[in-house]
Amino acid sequence: MTLHLGDIAPDFEQQSTQGSIRFHEWLSDSWGILFSHPKDFTPVCTTELGVVARLAPEWAKRNTKVVGLSVDPLESHQEWASDIAETQGSALNFPLLADQDGKVSRLYDMIHPNADAKLTVRSVFIIDPQKKIRLILTYPPSAGRSFDEIIRVLDSLQLTDGYKVTTPANWHQGDDVIIAPSVSDEQAKQLFPQGWKTLRPYLRLVRQPEEKSK
Length: 214
Hints:
Distance between the termini: 31 Å
Number of strands: 11
Strand order of the largest sheet: 5-4-3-6-7
Mean pLDDT: 93
Number of helices: 7
Shape: elongated
CATH architecture of the largest domain: 3-Layer(aba) Sandwich
Number of domains: 2
CATH topology of the largest domain: Glutaredoxin
Helix content: 25-40%
CATH class of the largest domain: Alpha Beta
Order of helices and strands: EEHEHHEHEHEEHEEHEE
Strand content: 15-25%
């Protein structure tokens, strides 16, 4: 199944290190991040899971739930969790799906036969509270994911959902943003009474608005 931005994230029920999860019900009205790992006891993924665990306060600030996935069984996940806690200094504090039957992997097109016929690629999906897919990333096995970048995109999505702006290259929280091209100058006067800087008629920079409650 090929998924695209704007598609409704497929629902599923699967076992995890925190019990059985019905995905849409578990997400409720939160944002969600689903990310996969090729298999348990892999070095890069061990470091990634430690980072995601340490970022728990950042996910909470953004009303975001995170869930990992590997095609190994639950017993293996539980053994791996001990290694993660010992080597990374952070215990798993989010569910890790035990997708041994490949049900979720197939739903989310995580098996790429030309890369590996059995193991999942290292995918990332950001899902909004309406259950729509807002970001899809696929990483090679040798490169650890930048969760700083994933948070940056999450911040951009949440900001631009609330205001008629877009975010420029390398944007971070607090930087200037771009007034959406669909907004006329007359409309912009109402939305951004503090004014803006026009570099081109289609490129108008404005101070980042204060975010609404997530």
